[in-house]
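Tokens as discussed.
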């Protein structure tokens, strides 16, 4: 798909089109897209992951939404035309024809000559396709590869504008009738001067026209850097991103090139505002799914743009059908927090993981368990534990093998670990796959004598529990928090999700150490169901912040479960300015301040850094993380963090995930964030 002057470059770009067709075909096979023609055009079949299916679903949905809106707005006109630039093996024409939507519309498809020759051969060979095209025998005339009653397939390099214009004229394109231009991940592969010239040429030569674009955005945040690196390694660099890095820059680009109206939204906004709620729910239940962070990050790095000129009535396909409260304007940053690689902890593969948990088991001794990461050069669910210890100012890490090779650990992700004594920690929940019913509770026992100066002696023993408290455990992405009630110690298990329920809002009080269920009265407005939130102990109660709600929307609420004489009460903590909704963050409390670390939000102009909430006044301040001294992108989701109050430092361990089709990124080394300047100034 797309264009480039060199033959080798054009081949690489064309390869992205073939891969795209296979992914769309896989999404159609799983019911995301209704398209019986993809399998005929894709050539080879390969089943993709659910994350890829969702990504290609939203792409297809955005294009179809805008194309059908154009056809609906122009249905009373005698003639219209669609010009698909860099169409590759797309099935758009066949779907529209099959649906009876091309009564007075001719579709022109343009791509490299060798791509259109392959496509023409496929069409002629497949009766299902050739019957719709009804070949009129016009091929062989210059660059016209195939010609039908309402279909023209043209082999020409898009970057050669004069050649493109001549070919379109030969094929019968009419400048005087309403025309829809489609560029689906195409313009970004062209040199900016050439893609700009194409956008301006379309505006100048077509008095009534619309231009539809779908492509990448936000190159400089961690996900964007991984995305750029992926395409550069394919020798198909994303050339438009440096000059047009965000949605507003793209909007100004079109308005500055002769288009009179232009609207643009990223794919999180499109999915939320332009896809009906019942359709959202249908897609969300097609397959077991648990990669919310990567789905939302992918959607924040792609946009759909609709520009028009001379259209009566105006073409406005991106008007939201529902109004969703969104955080207005850029997030104001109160300052920055420096990030530094943790000395002497580099090069330890077992610390490259996500969906794990890290807990301080003794002063300066941290136990990291579970998750998905890298072991022996392979990506896998992590069985081994790691102990990090700080001695004489330096951190050291050792791998701890479980004493008994059993299956009780279950290679779990998204569990919780609560340290209850010098020798005992409790593991609650977690999963292996999104299909799993959840994993049983376990005690982790470690010797009383272990200390920071000699972590090599630390051994961890797994002890199974009786199934009395299993209802609380059959979940993941939940929280387990230490609390007190009438002087007794409890664990508060809250929220999460399970194999049966995509989001939970229930809770359990587990009396320690015997872990018996205890019924304690709770009053007040109950928080909405959530998972991937944060929970911290504070003044005997529990602080719940953020999370992902029932509609897969980030939440911006903060609740305190406060102890009363006869039980507990939910109280809302109002923040000002309002907390930007987020999830997959970590949290800590220090001297009446709630610290939220990283996470995922829909506000794509920046990545979440550190947010400090004053629990007395509600003042909410955001700080950007300055990672300029790191040689790799720092992804702060699915990470773990440990707050070291004496140093006023955060130790970040792991983090990252599957970056759509761009590969898996795991933060390669632990990182320290120095909070002394911001905590001192507050």
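Sequence:
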């Amino acid at each position: 798909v797309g264009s480039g002057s060199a033959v080798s470059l054009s081949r690489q770009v064309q390869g992205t089109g073939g891969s795209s067709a296979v992914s769309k075909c896989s999404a159609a096979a799983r019911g995301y897209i209704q398209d019986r023609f993809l399998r005929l055009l894709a050539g080879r079949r390969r089943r993709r992951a659910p994350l890829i299916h969702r990504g290609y679903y939203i792409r297809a949905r955005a294009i179809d939404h805008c194309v059908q809106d154009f056809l609906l707005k122009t249905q009373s006109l005698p003639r219209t035309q669609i010009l698909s630039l860099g169409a590759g093996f797309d099935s758009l024409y066949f779907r529209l024809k099959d649906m009876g939507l091309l009564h007075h519309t001719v579709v022109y498809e343009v791509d490299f000559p060798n791509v259109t020759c392959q496509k023409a051969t496929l069409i002629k060979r497949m009766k299902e396709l050739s019957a719709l095209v009804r070949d009129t025998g016009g091929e062989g005339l210059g660059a016209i590869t195939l010609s039908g009653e309402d279909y023209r397939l043209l082999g020409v390099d898009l970057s050669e504008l004069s050649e493109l214009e001549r070919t379109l004229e030969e094929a019968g394109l009419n400048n005087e009738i309403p025309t829809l231009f489609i560029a689906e991940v195409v313009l970004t592969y062209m040199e900016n001067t050439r893609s700009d010239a194409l956008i301006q040429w379309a505006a100048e030569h077509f008095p009534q026209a619309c231009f539809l674009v779908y492509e990448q955005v936000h190159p400089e945040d961690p996900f964007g850097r991984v995305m750029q690196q992926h395409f550069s390694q394919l020798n198909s660099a994303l050339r438009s991103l440096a000059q047009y890095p965000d949605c507003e820059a793209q909007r100004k680009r079109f308005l500055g090139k002769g288009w009179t109206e232009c609207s643009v939204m990223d794919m999180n906004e499109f999915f939320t505002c332009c896809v009906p709620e019942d359709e959202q729910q249908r897609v969300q239940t097609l397959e077991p799914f648990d990669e919310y962070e990567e789905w939302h990050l992918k959607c924040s790095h792609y946009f759909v743009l609709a520009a028009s000129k001379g259209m009566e009535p105006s073409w406005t396909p991106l008007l939201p059908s529902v109004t969703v409260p969104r955080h207005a304007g850029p997030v104001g940053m109160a300052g920055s927090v420096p990030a530094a690689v943790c000395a002497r902890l580099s090069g330890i593969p077992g610390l490259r993981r996500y969906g794990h948990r890290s807990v301080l088991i003794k002063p300066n001794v941290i136990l990291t368990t579970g998750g998905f990461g890298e072991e022996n050069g392979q990506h896998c669910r992590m069985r081994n534990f790691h102990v990090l210890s700080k001695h004489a100012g330096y951190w050291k890490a050792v791998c701890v093998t479980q004493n008994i090779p059993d299956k009780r650990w279950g290679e779990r992700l998204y569990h919780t670990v609560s340290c209850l004594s010098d020798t005992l920690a409790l593991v609650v929940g977690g999963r292996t796959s999104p299909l799993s019913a959840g994993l049983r509770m376990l005690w982790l026992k470690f010797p009383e004598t272990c200390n920071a100066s000699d972590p090599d002696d630390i051994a961890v023993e797994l002890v199974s529990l009786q199934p009395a408290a299993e209802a609380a455990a059959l979940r993941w992405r939940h929280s387990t928090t230490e609390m007190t009630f009438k002087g007794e110690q409890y664990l508060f298990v809250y929220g999460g999700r399970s194999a049966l329920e995509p989001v939970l809002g229930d809770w359990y009080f587990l009396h320690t150490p015997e872990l018996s269920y205890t019924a304690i009265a709770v009053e007040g407005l109950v928080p909405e169901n959530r998972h991937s939130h944060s929970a911290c102990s504070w003044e005997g109660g529990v602080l719940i912040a953020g999370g992902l709600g029932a509609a897969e929307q980030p939440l911006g609420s903060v609740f305190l479960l406060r102890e009363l004489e006869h039980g507990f009460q939910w109280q809302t903590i109002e923040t000002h300015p309002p907390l930007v909704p987020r999830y997959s963050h970590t949290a800590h409390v220090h001297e009446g301040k709630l610290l939220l670390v990283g996470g995922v939000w829909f506000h794509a102009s920046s990545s979440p850094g550190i947010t400090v909430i004053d629990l007395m006044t509600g003042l909410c301040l955001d700080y950007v993380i300055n990672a300029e001294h790191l040689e790799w992108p720092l992804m702060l989701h699915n990470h773990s963090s440990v707050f070291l109050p004496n140093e006023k430092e955060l130790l970040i361990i792991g983090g990252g995930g599957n970056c759509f089709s761009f590969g898996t990124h795991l933060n390669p080394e632990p990182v320290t964030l120095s909070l002394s300047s911001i905590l001192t100034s507050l």
